[in-house]
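Narrative summary of target 7.
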Amino acid sequence: MATFTSTGQVGTPSATPFRLTTRLISKWPFDTLPGQLALRRFIVIVASVIMLVASYNGYSLLAKVTQTVGKDAVPSIVAAEKIRTTLAYAHTNYANAFLTKEGLGGPSMKAYQSAMAEAHSSMITAAQNITYGDEERTPILALSTDLSQYERLVGASFQSGTFDDSATNADFLMRHKILADTQALDQANFNHLNASYDSFKRSAYLWLYLALFCALIVLLVQVESQWHAYRGFKRILNPPLLAGTAVFALATLFYTAQYTANIDHLHTAKEDAFDSVHALAKARAVAFDANAQESIYLLHTGNASAQALVTNSFHSDALSIWASDRLGDTIPNDPNAMKGQGLLGDELANITFDGEKEAATQTLNGWLDYTKIDTQIRHLEAGGQHAAAVALDLGTSEGQSDWAFERFDKALQKTIDINQSAFDTAIAAAFGGLRSMLIAVLVMFVAPVISIIMGYRPRLAEFHE
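Modeled conformation, tokenized:
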């Protein structure tokens, strides 16, 4: 039947994609044994290629998030909190040098100078580990500039010999600028860590499921091909197909087991261990800042308006007022109730490892003891007993502030060490698993492709003899 084309000329019916496909299929020799073998080989190769892409993308996703957690973000976050804690410790000793009136050559100022040197060294390390560009570079530069100004003010205050305007400005700069700079450095890395880890959790299993779906197709076709070879050629076994199928199945099982193991390792490293390390490191920095402010408060003796600006509201950052009022000597029966009740509360809600509960309980009790003594110091100062307040603040005997703070800090550091050790172990296992996973990815692709080609080659050759 003739038709008219768009130009009005007589022509034949247009060849649509559907008709072309139908013609190609009709010409494919599915009804011949060589054609059926070629079709199976084609399916295995295509499925293997898709499986290679999916399994490699899954491996790449794991490698990327492991690198972010283990090498890029976490070390910078830990370094930022270390700098923050060291600077708060230096500031404490600066304030104590005025309280004790020991001058530049005393132990407090020596401790100050040592802490400042350590902070500068840590800043250099942080600058050498910049991964996220200006998000890290900006707070590091701000920190360097603000520290130079702070040290100039510290020097000026000691020249005057009194806790004057230079000292007050140095304190303000430390509390409101310098420590905030370190928090900005922490936050820049923590945002990337969370974004990378959350993205990983959303898509990790999708690549695994796609790879396994393709692997199932390959496995079914290979098993069916073995049966087809027996039925068509009366061979009980096809050694290349059998060997390839066995190797492929083992590689797939290994890849799946290692993939899920690496997911577990990352969960342990990020959610169980590092979330606790992060909360505890921030709590330690807050505590050292609190210890500095305890001395600064006493340096403003006789100046009620200045003392009113140096409150102990920072205590709630470590542990909320609600939790402080209700906790006794033990962690509550439902630790999840502590979530969101300050940094120590977040740790109490995330206890995972052996010995962690005992260490966290000691940390909690140490903090509660310290804050009670801090309240006593403020009551003594408010009651006009300045000398007694200073003695209680600087005292290292049982029941005094520095004694309680040291007990708290040792328990906190022990809790950090437990989680840090678990983090290091999990990350090392994750990196180790990646190396073997890459080998499994290659074997999963090569084994079925080679086996189906080698297995069918002699069979197809028989049709050409």
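The CA atoms of residues 164 and 171 lie 11 Å apart.
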